[in-house]
Design a protein that fits this description.
By secondary structure, the chain is mainly β. The protein is about 10% helix and about 50% strand. It has two domains: about 210 residues, Porin (Beta Barrel); about 160 residues, Beta Barrel (Porin), CATH 2.40.160. The N and C termini lie far apart (about 55 Å). The N terminus is likely disordered.
Length: about 400
Amino acid sequence: MKSLFPSAGISHRWIMFILFLTLSTSVNPALAEEKEEESFPGPSHFLRGGFQAGSVLQTNDFLNGDNQSGEPIDSFRSLRLEFGWQTDGSKDWHHSYNFPSYGIGIYGADYNNDVELGNPTSLYGFFEWPLIRGERWKFNFGLAFGLTNDWQPYDPVTNPKNVAMGLGRSVHLEGGPNLEYRLADRWALIGGLTFTHFSNGGTQRPNHGINQVGPLLFVKYDTDTPVAPPPRRHVDQYPDGWDLTVTGSAGKRNLNLELIGPEVEKFLNKSYFIGNLTLGVGRRFSCKSRYVFGLDLGYDESVGDLIIIDGIKNGVNANGTTGDNFELALFAGYEIVVHRTHLIVHFAYKILRKDVPGRLPDLYQRLGVKQFFYQNWFAGLNVRFHEIGSADNLEWTIGYKVGL
């Protein structure tokens, strides 16, 4: 097995990844909403290393064996190293989530096909939610969200079979249950099962993505003396009243069309700007949840070329206007609230847009994360998709919340 962490210089995008993931997982005491009591020791810290071997789901022809090796890509092996914080019960949200832990990690995987897939490495944030606690054990549900580099992407000349990854970078999404058992004062074993999804979110086609599942084994070491959590208290207070959020987002896509002929093939790998201005009205309805609904004003730069392509196919000279690129949608959503980090799910439907063949569908969804990094300012990353599983594009977001 080759090294899962190939040597490479640290580029500016890795630095951006680290900064973003730190924002997405850490909790800054200076921004805490609840006052920390002096009797609490503060979060303790831990390291854990994990090994995983599992199955790659056969979701496209490339993985089924239509590749240069002629062999299915049906298994993987991975290593990961994580640094985490264990909450101490000093905040209300610690009690709401049964004293969770969170942190950052680095991940590397091997698919026995370095030539066509590469050796992907991820930087990610993770969150462990204890569902049930015993004296020496915990049953958790874990989530991870991050960014992956070092894929060997599709290339029409050098890597024409790889329809799974059209870009050298992707999103890393992961979740699954695990059982933690404490062996000694500072040592624990963790066994679990995770489902992992890699995709560039439609930024670059082809993008069928990779889905995998497998058992995961961790060895955990507490770098501080573990502190027993205090008695868990019921939390029934949360911010009341309505709020308004204004969010701007930006991303890019290319056309996912069958383009044949010299007049239209030039549009195949062309990238287009996708932007949104979202106005949402929301309200908390529990310590862990809020709902939101509002308007989504979008701009899709690809519409102009879609009009030209449609004209070429129909033998006419057609051109669009800047106004054709705009669209307006209604959306409703749900957010899981973990202190200053929100996981979001949106469902939206376009009520105004120019009808053009190849335009992104009227009904679409969002899945993402946003982090309040300074007072009411937040930043985040979403995957926009349709038909529940077909990615359209990534959205890098920044926004502001104000009370109503």
